[in-house]
Amino acid sequence: MREQILVLEALQQIDLELSELEVHLREYPNKISAFEQELQSSKESLANLNTEKEELLKIKSEIENEITQNEETIKKSEERLFEIKTHKQYQALQKEISETKRMNSDLEDKLLEEMEKIDKLESQITEKSEELANKETDFQEKINDYKEKLEETKIAYKPKKEEKESITQTLNPEILPLYVKIMKKNGEVLAVAKNETCTGCYMNIPAQLFNEILTLSRIIQCPSCQKILYCEEESNSEAKTG
After folding, report:
1. pLDDT tens, residue by residue, 35-78
2. φ, ψ at 180 (rounded to 5°)
3. Domain residue limits at 137
4. Same domain, 146 and 184
5. Where on the phi/psi map is residue 216: left (φ > 0), alpha (ψ -120 to 50), or beta?
6. Are 64 and 83 members of one domain?
7. What is d(CA 73, CA 199) in angstroms, rounded to the nearest whole number?
8. In the predicted model, is pLDDT for residue 144 greater than 80?
9. Are residues 149 and 123 part of one domain?
């Protein structure tokens, strides 16, 4: 039974190492994805600002064209003033000219508003572009680092899994289901029994049961935490002689 305890120790150690590797196998892709998503979000935000700017430039161009057309209309109308024969026609054309000038004044105010919006957007675009450039440099380094760590973890995981399978073959088949059950519940299977106390949960062990643990004649579980108990000095002694 001492030999089986040593096997359980080795198996538990490998399982703990595998568990840590599995955590990394889950975490590293998540971290990579988080950085990539943030980069993508920043790119989309910048693209939206550029799209908004293009729309404003289009509006600005339309207003400028309308102002130019109105100015041409005003010029032609003012030239026609000298050709008009009647006072009534003269007044009507003057009114038309004044209305067109008023429209142009309103358009010029609107043009200034759009230009202010464009200036503000251009400042935001410059700021966001610089932020994105810094993020791309910083995040890409982190992404590459996590990708490298992920590959290293994958490389380490396979032989460790094979080592576990090899060690499992040396474990008594009757003990394996118990090992799996305790491992799922506690994360660790073994606990040292010392001074009639389980070092896994620090609960007292009955004297008779403790004496039986010393003999390692059978698998004994802690009545409280259900971990498999053994005496460290016995295990170390076996490890040295083995």
Report:
1. 999 999 999 999 999 999 999 999 999 999 999 999 999 999 99
2. -60, -45
3. 21-168
4. no
5. left
6. yes
7. 97
8. yes
9. yes
